[in-house]
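Reopening: Transcriptional regulator still failing for me.
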Amino acid sequence: MKGKEGNALKRALNDPVYALPLFGRARVLCQGKEVRPSRKGLALLYYLALEGPTSRARLADLLYGHGSALQNLRVELHRLGQAFGREVFPKGQDPLSLPSWLKLEASGHGEALEGLEEVGSLWEWVQEVRARHEPAPGLPWRQELLRELSALRSPFLLVLRGRIGAGQRALAQELARVLGLAFHQSLRPEGLIYLESPYPQVPLREILRSKAFLVLSLDPGEDPRFFLELRAHYPPERMRVLELAPLSWLEARQGLLAGHTFQQAAGAYFLAGGQPEWIPEWLACTTSPQRPLAQLRLKARWLSEPARVALERLSVVSGFIPEQALDALGALPYLEELERKGWLVYQGGYRFAREAERRLFYSTLSPGRRHELHERAATALALAGRGQVEAWHRKALGESYEGLLEPHLREALLGEGRVWAKRGLGRELALLTQGGEGVFPLGQGFGLALLELGEKARLDFSSLEEEAVLELLGEAYAPEDSWGLLLSVRGAWGEGHLRLEGSFAHRLLLPQGPFHLRFSGVGVAEFTLRAYRPRSDEGAFRTGKAPVDVWVLAAKKAQEVPEQGEKKGKNQGRGEGNVHP
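Support: Ran it again with your exact input. Result attached.
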């Protein structure tokens, strides 16, 4: 008996594997030789390989579509057995499933499933498969991540945690291409299987036994039971969880946004929140593109109706939402649900998890509804003495708000306390950075992108050995309905504030000593920094360089600044200068 069992096992292990190439002419190959079943038999095998176990009734309808379809299917199954010289499907099996010795391979050249378009009623299905598996030149984003993941091998569980628009499905498709695996969106014994919510209700043991490369898309917020069960049972060496953050400005600029002007690219990048699926949508439509909005509203349907309505009301508040506004907008009872499901985050106060999502929700409000909600929030904040936040709503209402702003914001936005002098630019001085965060090298200059209110970026510089004119040249983008992208220049003498917008050229007269650049607000910028020794008018004209307006940051009062053409005195006090018009 043992000998017979051993021989049977040996025969099973040595059984040849028949391949179904996905691309090019549909065919069956075994050790380089082609097996020739009928076209309908071949179509049946490919359908089972791509769609999994399927009932006889469904297959009969697809292949024949008439009253004798089931009888014809039985005849076709018999013909398949004759073509292979062995039983392909056990008698009575329903639904039919592909035998283990037949494998779909993501190989070949040309279109997928060539020759099966005219079989039965499969035309639409073949077109859908071609769209699903259309060879691509490669994603223009997350290339480093793809190179890293290309070393993984089946069986494996890869979890992609990301927000709407992060591109989980496209990344999984590209990974399947890189690994040479067939891409599926339902459970199969092999290939790359991409699953997203709602997840299939199948016994966990079936998934754990799978030889497939399983990619699970996970939404932010509370982890679903399906994921928790997988995580509890999958071996650590066969599993990896990745957080798909928005694309960096540099990665987007070199990929999806290549060839576009700065303002076009920066606008699409900011409004999409850096999400790769949304960037092309914002490039094509600069006012509320419908696909991202539909995705967002569909996902919001998982909220209770009152919580969803509260979320839409809260979209009139940018950044942190004061408790008075939460109360006035009727959101207090739903904060736990909104935070648990990932729409709001708490970081010393509640705010939208993503500013791009808040803006999309805001775009769905009618003008009258916006006015009412801004008025409710402004009134509550005025009673609480929260003038700075109230100013945001007064501005949206078209009312006077300037008097509610804090001094540094008035200085940046309104140009109060300007102190100017005329200086020529002498020889260039060396600028040495000592550190920074959120600002990255970009060619000969720097770049930065602040997508969320509360984010900051900075550059720290070594001490200037002498007085210098700091020149900032570049371009900036910020949405019109915001305070914009703000820059604070700080030194031992104090600080000054300005707003970066459009194509800008700012020249700042800095005293000796270290100085720091701090960026806040929201927006995208690319700029260069250079420092020059300042010269008087006379010296400038002698060298052929006309004098320019220079913002005197170290001046304490306007009257303390020397008249144009006079030599500047020693540095005095804290600067009250402002942005150059």
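The mean pLDDT is 87. If you still see a failure, please send the error message rather than a screenshot.
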